[in-house]
């Protein structure tokens, strides 16, 4: 287990399951074999142990609860084999989630620990995958994280999805087709060294940094800034497209025209309404567009 994870859990006074302790041979196969031999708790035993830990902070009871569910963490970790990360690392992260679940489990809620813990276990694995799957993060918002994991499950074959498949996935996950295409592009891409040729050959093609002209600032910062500006411009276009014609015209003439802004009263006279009504339309349109930028 990583030093950071171990330190955090020891601070919370929870027992840390050790692969070495459970499997003297030290191999992953031996660990999996060892956890599969640990007996599954009955409902009554689980309830009794959970109450001992909750009411008396009995660490032996917590340890038994954790150990009896380690096989389930292995089962969940195997479901993420396709991400190219070591199953041993996923198991360790899942064990952290299991221990967090044990710490928060309330036996009086009428659910089994395994049903409560699965969300904590998956959350830790998801966080680990997103941090380590690529050098460049592929999902930063909550919606993108959901799309990242569900899109891989939704794809029926290798290769790029056709238009019908994109529409079906977008409808199934309740996201826009643009978001599906963007995430598919991220998943299909690969990390390329910024400063060195991709193959490490000095006589090979130039690295990406060579294509950026120095304009008084660091090329990497320039690239990041221009990429961010391009992304925001794309969101702005999408936001305008979702507005009705009158709202779109008001926003463009009040905020986007390079010439002097049109006044509320001028627009009110043109549309035959009050200036206050124009202000309300403008405020509602800006609110909708801000929501897109915050997503």
TrEMBL record:
Residues 264-283 bind DNA. Residues 89-102, 263-289 form the RNA polymerase sigma-70 domain. It comes from Cognatilysobacter xinjiangensis. This is RNA polymerase sigma factor RpoH. Belongs to the sigma-70 factor family. RpoH subfamily. Interacts with the RNA polymerase core enzyme. Residues 65-134 are annotated as: Sigma-70 factor domain-2. The lineage of its organism: Bacteria, Pseudomonadati, Pseudomonadota, Gammaproteobacteria, Lysobacterales. Residues 239-291 are annotated as: Sigma-70 factor domain-4. Keywords: Cytoplasm, DNA-binding, Sigma factor, Stress response, Transcription, Transcription regulation. The gene is rpoH. It is found in: Cytoplasm. HAMAP family: Sigma70_RpoH. Sigma factors are initiation factors that promote the attachment of RNA polymerase to specific initiation sites and are then released. This sigma factor is involved in regulation of expression of heat shock genes. CDD domains: Sigma70_r4 (cd06171). InterPro entries: RNA_pol_sigma-70_dom, RNA_pol_sigma70, RNA_pol_sigma70_r1_2, RNA_pol_sigma70_r2, RNA_pol_sigma70_r4, RNA_pol_sigma_r2, RNA_pol_sigma_r3/r4-like, RNA_pol_sigma_RpoH_proteobac. A motif (Interaction with polymerase core subunit RpoC) lies at residues 89-92.
């Amino acid at each position: 287990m990583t030093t950071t994870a171990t330190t955090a859990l020891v601070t919370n006074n929870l027992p840390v399951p050790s692969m070495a302790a459970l499997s003297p041979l030290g191999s992953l196969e031996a660990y999996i074999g060892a956890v599969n031999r640990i007996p599954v708790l009955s409902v009554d035993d689980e309830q009794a142990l959970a109450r001992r830990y909750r009411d008396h902070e009995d660490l032996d009871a917590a340890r038994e609860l954790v150990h009896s569910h380690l096989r389930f963490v292995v089962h969940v970790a195997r479901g993420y084999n396709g991400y190219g990360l070591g199953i041993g690392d996923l198991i360790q992260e899942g064990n952290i989630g299991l221990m967090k679940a044990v710490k928060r489990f309330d036996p009086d809620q009428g659910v089994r620990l395994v049903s409560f813990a699965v969300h904590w276990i998956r959350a830790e694995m998801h966080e680990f995958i997103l941090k380590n799957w690529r050098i460049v993060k592929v999902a930063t918002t909550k919606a993108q994280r959901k799309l990242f994991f569900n899109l891989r499950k939704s794809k029926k074959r290798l290769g790029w999805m056709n238009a019908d498949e994109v529409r079906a996935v977008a409808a199934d996950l309740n996201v826009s087709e643009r978001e599906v295409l963007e995430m598919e592009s991220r998943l299909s891409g690969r990390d390329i060294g910024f400063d060195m040729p991709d193959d490490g050959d000095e006589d090979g093609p130039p690295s990406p940094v060579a294509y950026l002209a120095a304009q008084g600032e660091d090329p990497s910062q320039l690239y990041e800034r221009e990429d961010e500006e391009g992304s925001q411009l794309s969101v702005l276009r999408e936001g305008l497209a979702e507005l009705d014609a009158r709202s779109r015209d008001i926003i463009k003439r009040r905020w986007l025209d390079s010439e002097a802004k049109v006044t509320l009263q001028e627009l009110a006279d043109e549309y035959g309404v009050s200036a206050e009504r124009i202000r309300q339309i403008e405020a509602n349109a800006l609110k909708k567009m801000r929501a897109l930028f915050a997503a």
